[in-house]
Amino acid sequence: MPIETLQDKVVISLTPPALATPTTTGAVPATCTIYLHGATVTSWTVNGREMLFLSSKAILDGSKPIRGGIPLVFPQFGTYPGAPLPQHGFARTSTWRVLRTDVSPDETKATVVFVLTSSDLSLAARTAWPTPFRLEYTVTVDAVHHTLATDLAATNLATTTEFDMPFTWLLHTYLRVDAIEKTEIRGLEGHLYVNKAIADRDPTTQAFPALPIKEETDRVYQNVVPAAESHLHVLSGGRPAVEIVRTHGETAFRDVVVWNPWVDKAKAMADFGDDEYRHMVCVEVGDVVVPNAVSVAPGETRRAGQVLRALL
Ligand code: BG6
Questions:
Q1: Is residue 278 annotated as involved in ligand binding?
Q2: What is the pTM (predicted TM-score) of this model?
Q3: H or E element: which one contains 175?
């Protein structure tokens, strides 16, 4: 069975057919695990290779956000004085429901759709963020194209024009890397960023095509408008390892966060191994820069997503 729904997670397991047909040429085994807690993708393998980072100390029992994979940030990125919600909002700590699943006839592609609405929230979250909403999260694994697509759709369920739904959102993707000192990110050259890792937070322009990670990194790049020639790439040892394509045209995610806690912050996190910063980098696409972040009118839906492609 390519999709198995268990009590706390959904497991996708695609095994390409023994006899390749023209439509399945290039197919390799692909798997994916998604916890209902936060609808957090915790694993994505392509041809036996794990593409996502999940901390060995990650807590998976629903008592904390999961440290690794793809936690969903909604409706609040980070935190600030007077913020209505805890850091990164409630999507990553809520229990989502499976709405439907689908497998292509040749079993090389599988989709799981999750849903979260206001009525699924804890009383504390609903009180802090009273706008009625519906969030759909679609996860698709494709064994032919070696991709993992994660799409969000946020609907404002308010019935009067008084209730626009402003929010920030982001796919907090933890990518597994062989060695951080051999890792660089491309696609951000010429874009303005704020470095949250230092006290001086004046916006700076990234001058170079490659961003290596050599220290604590917490950069928020603004308005990196997606274009075919500017897809984001994560390289390992000079070789492209993962491509990140933002989807949905005009409503595509515009901002990109690059995060690595490095030595001291790694030690300070209880759910993260001291040396694990060497094997991960977060490249997070979203709309997080206020006041340009998203606002959805009553009855309307905003869609955005990413496709991660493993470059084997
Ligand atoms: C990043 C933020 O998106 O998430 C960082 O830019 C933050 O500032 C990081 O430290 C991890 O956040 P958390 O809440 O999962 O520890």
A1: no
A2: 0.97
A3: strand 174-176
